[in-house]
């Protein structure tokens, strides 16, 4: 069992009379890499700033390493934050930037030399100690900002979209390095991004937010395969969402068809999510296959190399996406059967917030 090192309890935050965080609670295990994911404006930066101490919540508690800290000033919390716009000191060279926090804490020259040396080596900055920020690329400046946070050995490292200013290729390299270093050091990290691929590929746990509400927290697989709200289903990856009529059974009515689900659907209107990659197509009319089958008409198709993406319309006029991987030269047209297994016919139990 991993220990819980950080916990937010019922956090609410207003700016003026505008509430931007609504009753957010979550726990972070020691050594985990946790990603806060959501569209721009959903409150990610506000949450990081409350953990770091730059904003105070209006109500709720923040616990870190056994202390309740929501009213503790930033310098008295053992957190370190890397801002989206690196915020290096322009008049200081790399060594001075990275050693700054330790100098403020009056650590000995020897300790500073050792810790800065380690952090620079980890971030592959050795040899650049004398450079000034304006003499470095965006990627290098970003590494300096991370090194400056690492030397503080914080109880939690807070990273606010630290890769968003890098080009796609560099982003991927730094992403892998960052995750390796974080794991080597066993450093508890909260990482903010609006990039779902980044969140799925780097994290031990993902927290999905929208409009200041926490929609779901879970391991990447759970978030992808078992989204709890229609927003999560649609925000992570691509999906088909359909409205169904529940009868307190493992199946639902969809128009004249019956669909078997991965869970019991209570009485009432619910949403079901079916991923495009879960769909198979057949030109045959299939009465009873294994799992679910609906008839549809292909309205459009796109060859994407590793897959064919089909746009379909079912009998109720609802639009679907179906992805056929490794398609070779096969192209379906006209009316087809869409098949998908019941365990990939996911019942979304909660409505949007
Ligand atoms: N200092 C501030 N004063 C007033 N409103 C703010 C302030 N900071 C953020 N907001 C508002 O709070 C909401 C959440 O912002 P933010 O936490 O920056 O979102 P994100 O980081 O997810 O893009 C937005 O509506 C934003 O306009
Ligand atoms: Mg932000």
Query: Which structural class best describes the helix and strand composition?
Result: alpha+beta
Low-pLDDT parts are: none
| Fourth-tier CATH superfamily name of the largest domain | P-loop containing nucleotide triphosphate hydrolases
- How many whole angstroms does the radius of gyration measure? 24 Å
Percent helix: 10-25%
List the helices and strands and how they pair.
Layout (H helix, E strand, L loop, with lengths): L3 E12 L2 E12 L3 E5 L6 H9 L6 E6 L2 E2 L10 E4 L11 H11 L4 H14 L15 H13 L5 E5 L7 H18 L3 E5 L2 H7 L2 E6 L2 E6 L1 H6 L4 H6 L4 E7 L2 E6 L2 E9 L2 E7 L5 E3 L9 E12 L3 E8 L4 E7 L9 E6 L5 E3 L5
Parallel strand pairs: 3-8, 3-9, 6-7, 7-8
Antiparallel strand pairs: 1-2, 1-4, 4-5, 9-10, 11-12, 11-14, 12-13, 14-20, 15-19, 16-17, 16-19, 17-18
Bound molecules: adenosine-5'-diphosphate and magnesium ion (MG).
Magnesium ion (MG) binds next to helix 1.
Notable traits:
353 residues; alpha+beta; Rossmann fold; OB fold (Dihydrolipoamide Acetyltransferase, E2P); six-stranded mixed β-sheet; elongated; binds magnesium ion
